[in-house]
Predict the structure of Putative outer membrane protein.
Amino acid sequence: MNIQSLLKGVPGKKTGTALLLSSALLTGCAMTPTSPDGSEDVRAKLTGLQQNPDMMTHARIELRDAEAAVQLAEQPLASDEAALAAHRIYMADRMVEIARAKGETRLMEADRVLLGEERDAARLAARTREADQAHADATSARTSQADAAALSAREAAELQRQIDMLEAEATERGLVLTLGDVLFATGSAQIQGGTNQNLEKLVNFLNQYPDRQVLIEGHTDNVGSALFNQNLSRQRAESVRQFLTDHGIDNRRLSVSGYGFERPVANNDNATGRQQNRRVEVVIENRE
């Protein structure tokens, strides 16, 4: 629809109204999505080279290729295409660095012809060192970024491996490790010997992630009085905390609660359900 059709049939339309509508439509048409983050930095680097007469003389083709790569990197992408945007920016940056290196190399070769190898060997050596240092700095920066990304990936993989070994469940509260009633004898809060494998895995995990706080929560079935089960669940949670502190875990990281039969996870009307309810849950809180 054009401006004339918008104004058609409007009594007393004036030139000012037409101009306002025209301006609004042109403004709307001129709005474009923004370029991906990081493309501005690559563009600035390329512009600096393009404004250098020596670079334009000795790296014209490479700068042309870099310009095409930067234009591609500047194209807006959907929010779910962040990886593609990052790849395009990385490749554009590489093309800019290649153009810079080619231009500097050819400039040095031209200088060698003009100045003579013997007479200006010192100057050429200095230029070579500067170019090598610039290339080394650029390579080091890219390597550092790649190393940081690889380290984050390794850390995430290691955390997942530890979680799998721990057989913990990821929840909104954090990682939840459930210790079943096999850990204790009936009616007892003392940890039985030979049943500490899961607790030892827990100690190992907490030692590797010392910034995580831990909640230890005891639960029972509904056999017996509420007061008895409340005390028993608390005592069992305390026994788990004592095991952890005996194995080097800082007591300040540990909090203990006993809920008795207030929070069942299964029906207490049958033996299977009651067994599931007799448990100690260790909640390893998420990082803030």
In short: Residues 1-31 have pLDDT under 50 and may be disordered. Residues 39-152 form one domain. The chain has two domains: 39-152, 167-285. The CA atoms of residues 31 and 197 lie 62 Å apart.
